[in-house]
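Supplementary Methods S3. Input chains for the assembly prediction are listed below.
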Amino acid sequence: MDSRHLMTTGEVSKVLGSSRQHVVDLCERGEINFVRVGKHRRVPESEVLRITRVNRPVDRDSVRSLWLHRVVLGHLMQRPEEVMESSRKVLERRLSKSDYPGSPRPYYERWLEILDSGVERVSEVLVDRSEEGCVLRSCSPFTGVISEREREQTLQSFRRSYS
Amino acid sequence: MRRQELAHVLRAACSIAEDRDVVVVGSQAILGSYDEDDLPAIATMSSEADVAFLRDAERKALQVSGAIGELSSFHETFDYYVDGVELELIALPDGWEQRCVTWDLQSADPARPRFVEPHDLAVAKLVAHREKDRLFVSALLDAGLIDHRTVVERARMLPEKYAGSVSSVTSWVESHRDHRK
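Predicted structure tokens for the full assembly:
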């Protein structure tokens, strides 16, 4: 197997937002396939994608979140520099006060990585229906991007569509 | 989310719904039973608190989500938010109401919050069965904060409409226990 496509359990834990020990446990229970390289477990990148990117039916609350973030996406397309900058500031502020065990820090750090990848990647994640996409949106740094009025209108139209 | 943040959320939600009796149902319900310092990190990482009201539930859920929900100015100010939910949409074992945990944290006043008991919460999470739900339950089991036997017993108390989920929940829990031996 091509070693470029193998991830350490530490890298996988960062993607899943869990501890490394939990990734080891998932491997040992057979929930994640892995190979051994010497004494170390290595997880194929495809396996991580299988876990995090499978398009599955998402619950109503996740769909509502998706609707809100589609509105954010509209703003990102119209004024990318401003939206990227404001979300980066939100993340930096949150990170400065998230230095305690059990904080959402891993999600914020993941968002920073995504922002660093550029507008295209951010636009993909904003409407990504995978579990990872849903979890990341639940810690969204895009507060303040859409107005209260836009938000209210979106929630109303969502309710009409899903009533 | 930490206990004091949850207390703040509950004050705000109860004020908006004009109802003191609120039930915390999502992962943050674990804060009703344990202090954040006693919990595995993954148990408190969510920025969202799921709350439900017993009376006029649908209207109050919409009201709360609308006022202090995701991407609201409340979320912008405090970095956490509330999702109003309806209890009938959550897979809770029969008798969960009697097993709810209460809180005497004064900072939640005037809210009179109740929290879904940890084993009932674990069953609800395992029925949802998302990766984050399995990690949450796994962490509580590994930390000894809930036990395998009780989770299986509670899964068997799920209402009829969730009958199809009982075997998958019990299999998952038994597999977790066998791995721990």
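Residues 10 and 20 of chain A are 5 Å apart (CA to CA). Chain A has a mean pLDDT of 86.
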